[in-house]
């Protein structure tokens, strides 16, 4: 029997694809439609493999595979980026968008082939569909990409294969197949870009903050892989292991990551960072404000743990309590988006590195804070944290930050896009900070009519749409750089579709929703 929420989720994704391609229709549109059709069929094979325990790795069990919505994110991002940069006349980033779209399609196709290959008996119809979709994609790539671009796409695919084999083995039950595609596909692309730029450094070319993002992401992941291998041979919870952890972190940070960043930006990274952070009085005020909000978030964690009595050790924080952090994140990002987006960009990178590093300390039980972090964060676990890592807070940060990091600054003449594109950096704030939060609070407290097959309510979804429209109106009032050029119907359709996707998906909505809203706004 077909799963109603999966069918609803798939229908919404197909509608988003058609909406995007009514605006942007070219040879890549046929590829996107073919990829979506075959992903729709293959995701049911993945779902069956997960139910029967036939998948090669252990995936998160409380959700479906999520292959269709995840498969379309990177290709659609590449297509809309290509079109925006083509309109702006920036050929380099137009070609970059084509590479992004081609890479996303090939990686998604690879994951589909894996599912078809391990399904017994072999699904003939799905094999034919996958073959047809693959033929269309490869034929289009053959006539669209240069030799160097084909090599780059294959490099990302190779990195993705090896990263998947390593991380899915080391981190069982942390991802669904769709989430693994999004996260590992993104990391693979970042790693390939860093290698490419490191081998072709030209002094004075490239924005230092872009290099900072690439080095920070790759650096913390390599750090985690190093310590994972190391602690296979020694107990990570002892004082000797903890001292070795801190010492090796300093050695790798100062001996590998810092020189790597120095090579890319051609200046001392620490001096550059300090100069950047305290360059203007506005930045100082924002940093002080953000420090206060960070302290408030820590205060909520300590207060909620203090409320946990000894006889209710299994007590978990309520949905409304967890949404406090969403409000804090909105209060963090909105001033940054209005007054200094570059500072917000760098601060979000630093925060991501700190979050991942603290998760290493918690996971490996590094003294003196590892066990304390385990106790404090256990209160906020939900069904999505079924693996050894706690990732929901990292996904929240990523969902808010990705629209800022992926904003095509070089293709925006005055630092902002026209029409609905002006709201692209606000995609995370609208989809996660406002929409998801309001839907969860109102749905859990006042919702009565449930969407078929889910715990989500119609009242929560409608309230989320209404709240996001109000938020857009407030952005128009307070942010003078935003000019929507009468594209209100498109904004309403975008917000409504993404809110409906939130009601039907079982994937990590903090990660998925902002990306789809960004795609719609950029189209």
Task: Summarize this structure as a short list of keywords or feature phrases.
523 residues; single chain; mainly alpha; 74% helix; 19 helices
Secondary structure elements and pairings:
Blueprint: H1 4-23, H2 27-52, H3 67-88, H4 91-118, H5 124-142, H6 147-170, H7 177-199, H8 208-230, H9 239-265, H10 269-277, H11 281-307, H12 319-339, H13 341-364, H14 370-378, H15 392-405, H16 427-446, H17 458-478, H18 488-504, H19 509-522
Q: Report how far the terminal alpha carbons are from each other.
A: 35 Å
What oligomeric state do these chains adopt? Answer: single chain
Tally of helical runs: 19
| Helicity level | over 70%
The major pleated sheet works out as:
none
**Beta-strand percentage?**
under 5%
Mean model confidence by pLDDT: 85
| Shape, principal axes of CA atoms | globular
**Low-pLDDT sequence parts:** none
H/E element order:
HHHHHHHHHHHHHHHHHHH
Explain how this protein is built.
The protein is globular. Helix 15 packs antiparallel against helix 16 (427-446). The mean pLDDT is 85. With 523 residues, it is mainly α. The protein has 19 helices and no strands.
């Amino acid at each position: 029997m077909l799963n109603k929420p999966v069918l609803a989720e798939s229908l919404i994704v197909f509608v988003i694809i058609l909406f995007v391609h009514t605006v942007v229709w070219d040879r890549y549109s046929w590829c996107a439609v073919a990829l979506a059709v075959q992903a729709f069929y293959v995701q049911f094979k993945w779902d069956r493999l997960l139910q029967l325990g036939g998948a090669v790795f252990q995936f998160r069990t409380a959700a479906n595979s999520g292959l269709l919505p995840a498969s379309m994110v990177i290709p659609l991002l590449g297509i809309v980026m290509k079109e925006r940069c083509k309109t702006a006349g920036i050929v380099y980033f137009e070609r970059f968008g084509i590479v992004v779209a081609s890479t996303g399609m090939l990686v998604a196709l690879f994951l589909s082939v894996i599912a078809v290959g391990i399904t017994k008996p072999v699904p003939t119809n799905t094999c034919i569909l996958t073959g047809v979709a693959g033929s269309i994609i490869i034929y289009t790539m053959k006539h669209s990409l240069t030799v160097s671009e084909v090599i780059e796409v294959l490099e990302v695919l190779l990195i993705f294969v090896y990263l998947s084999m390593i991380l899915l083995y080391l981190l069982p039950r942390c991802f669904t197949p769709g989430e693994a595609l999004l996260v590992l596909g993104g990391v693979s692309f970042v790693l390939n870009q860093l290698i490419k730029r490191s081998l072709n450094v030209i002094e004075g070319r490239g924005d230092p903050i872009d290099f900072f993002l690439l080095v920070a992401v790759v650096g913390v992941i390599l750090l985690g892989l190093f310590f994972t291998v190391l602690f296979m041979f020694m107990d990570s919870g002892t004082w000797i292991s903890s001292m070795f952890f801190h010492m090796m972190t300093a050695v790798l940070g100062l001996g590998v990551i810092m020189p790597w960043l120095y090579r890319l930006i051609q200046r001392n990274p620490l001096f550059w960072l300090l100069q950047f952070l305290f360059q203007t009085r506005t930045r100082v005020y924002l940093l002080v404000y953000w420090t206060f909000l960070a302290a408030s978030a820590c205060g909520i964690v300590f207060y909620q743990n203090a409320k946990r009595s000894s006889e209710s050790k299994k007590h978990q924080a309520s949905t409304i309590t967890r949404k406090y952090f969403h409000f804090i994140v909105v209060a963090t990002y909105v001033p940054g988006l209005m007054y200094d987006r570059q500072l917000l960009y760098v601060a979000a990178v630093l925060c991501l590195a700190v979050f991942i590093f603290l998760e290493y300390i918690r996971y490996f039980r590094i003294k003196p804070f590892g066990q304390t972090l385990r106790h404090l964060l256990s209160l906020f676990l939900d069904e999505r944290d079924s693996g050894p890592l706690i990732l929901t807070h990292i996904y929240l940060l990523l969902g808010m930050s990705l629209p800022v990091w992926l904003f095509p600054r070089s293709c925006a003449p005055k630092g902002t896009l026209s029409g609905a594109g002006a709201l692209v950096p606000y995609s995370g704030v609208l989809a996660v900070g406002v929409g998801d939060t309001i839907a969860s609070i109102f749905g859990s407290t006042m919702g009565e009519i449930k969407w078929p097959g889910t715990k989500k309510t119609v009242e929560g979804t409608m309230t989320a749409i209404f709240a996001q429209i109000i938020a857009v109106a407030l952005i128009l009032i307070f942010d003078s750089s935003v000019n929507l050029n009468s594209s209100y119907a498109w904004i309403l359709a975008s917000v409504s579709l993404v809110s409906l996707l939130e009601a039907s998906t079982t994937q990590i909505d903090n990660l998925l929703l902002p990306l789809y809203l960004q795609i719609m706004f950029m189209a």
